[in-house]
């Protein structure tokens, strides 16, 4: 039997349908253990007794508790210094995804493999026990996040178009692209999101589509708002949309984030800056495309995804 491996973590939109990740906040999913897989394959479970890695402890990082990232939040200036130091150290280095253990993004201390990867005895278990997004076919309506409820959501209506390419620039057809995002006020409709901004009863913030013969995808949605998080004092995430490109099986899934041009929060965000290559960071920022804007209706953005190669879109999981 062919060996496959899990990287001890996956992300999924909201952990719908009561999946294993249903209690995990969307931006806290970067390396959540898929325990069902481990149990089903009979492998030893990942040790949770010591949540901080040895390397993190050696650096004197603060201790963590669920729902509260830091007991004594650092000011932005300290985070800025850490970002600058890591970027300087990585100058010219070849990399294809952010470090899983990236100090300025505090909770990554909890989210990188602490043990060797687990070979799965039953690869199909990943398909049977992994989180699921839905049990129905993908329809055109799934790509329009403004039409999922009886009324119109609040906010700035936008369309996001792009194409998915392989490393040779060839379009990737029939690819499941999933997105999830906060509403216009920067709030997720999620049990772990307690940001005091209004929920929008007409906006769930999840969508999906299949790429067409040109590798193209398109979503109609609302521009998400910035939101605070507890990484450090006065930490705010730039507006972003989470993207998942599924591959041909759950174990191939790649996840990343798209940003909006000109966001003043870019320099302050440890998650975006965990991408240490300047050009790679720029590739995560969509372009405003006036030709995609629709008169009296919506503003258009374009963002392409490259799965591999020198111009690859950096993903949150290793490849
Ligand atoms: Fe987010």
Find the CATH topology of the domain at 140-306.
Protocatechuate 3,4-Dioxygenase, subunit A
Instruction: Give the termini separation.
Output: 22 Å
How would the global form be characterised? globular
Task: Kindly provide the radius of gyration, computed on alpha-carbon positions and rounded to a whole number of angstroms.
Answer: 19 Å
Count of DSSP strands: 13
CATH architecture designation of the domain at 140-306: Sandwich
From the helix content, strand content and strand pairing, which structural class follows? alpha+beta
Bound molecules: fe (ii) ion
Mind describing the biggest β-sheet? 5 strands, mixed
Give the mean pLDDT.
77
Please give the CATH class of the domain at 140-306: Mainly Beta
Describe this structure in words.
- This protein is of the alpha+beta class.
- It has a domain of 167 residues: Protocatechuate 3,4-Dioxygenase, subunit A (Sandwich).
- The protein has six helices and 13 strands.
- Strands 3, 6, 11, 12 and 13 form a five-stranded mixed beta sheet that branches. A four-stranded antiparallel beta sheet has the order 5-4-9-10, with no helix packed on it. It has a two-stranded antiparallel sheet with strand order 1-2.
- The protein is globular, with a radius of gyration of 19 Å.
- 36% of the residues are buried.
How would you summarize what this structure contains?
This protein has 319 residues and is of the alpha+beta class.
List the helices and strands and how they pair.
Elements: E1 4-6, H1 35-40, H2 54-58, H3 76-89, E2 118-120, H4 125-129, E3 157-165, E4 176-180, E5 206-210, E6 216-222, E7 227-229, E8 235-237, E9 240-245, E10 254-259, H5 270-273, H6 278-283, E11 287-288, E12 299-302, E13 305-306
Parallel strand pairs: 3-12, 3-13
Antiparallel strand pairs: 1-2, 3-6, 4-5, 4-9, 7-8, 9-10, 11-12
The structure holds fe (ii) ion (FE2).
Fe (ii) ion binds next to β9.
């Amino acid at each position: 039997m062919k060996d496959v491996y899990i990287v001890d973590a996956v992300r999924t939109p909201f952990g719908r349908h009561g999946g294993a990740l249903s209690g995990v906040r969307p931006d806290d999913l970067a390396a959540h253990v898929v325990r069902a897989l481990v149990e089903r394959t009979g492998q030893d479970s990942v040790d949770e007794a010591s949540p901080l890695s040895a390397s993190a402890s050696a650096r004197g990082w603060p201790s963590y508790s669920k729902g509260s990232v830091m007991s004594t939040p650092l000011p932005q200036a300290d985070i800025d210094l850490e970002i600058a130091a890591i970027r300087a150290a990585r100058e010219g280095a070849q990399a294809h995804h952010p470090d899983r253990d990236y100090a300025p993004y505090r909770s990554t201390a909890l989210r990188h493999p602490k043990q060797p990867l687990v070979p799965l005895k039953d690869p199909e278990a990943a398909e049977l026990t992994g989180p699921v997004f839905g049990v129905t076919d993908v329809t055109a309506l799934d790509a329009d996040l403004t039409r999922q409820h009886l009324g119109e959501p609040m906010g700035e209506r936008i369309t996001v178009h792009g194409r998915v390419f392989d490393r040779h620039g060839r379009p990737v057809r029939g690819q499941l692209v999933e997105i999830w995002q906060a509403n216009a006020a920067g709030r997720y409709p999620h049990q772990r999101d307690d940001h005091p901004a209004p929920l929008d009863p007409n906006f769930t913030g999840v969508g999906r589509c299949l790429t067409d013969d040109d590798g193209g995808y398109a979503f109609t949605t609302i521009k998400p708002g910035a939101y605070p998080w507890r990484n450090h004092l006065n930490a705010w995430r730039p507006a972003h949309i989470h993207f998942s490109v599924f591959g041909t099986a759950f174990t191939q899934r790649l996840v990343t984030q798209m940003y909006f041009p000109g966001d003043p929060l870019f320099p302050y965000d440890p998650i975006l800056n965990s991408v240490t290559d300047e050009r790679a960071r720029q590739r995560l920022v969509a372009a405003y495309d006036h030709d995609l804007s629709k008169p009296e209706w919506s503003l258009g953005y374009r963002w392409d995804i490259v799965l591999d190669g020198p111009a690859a879109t950096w993903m949150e999981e290793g490849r």
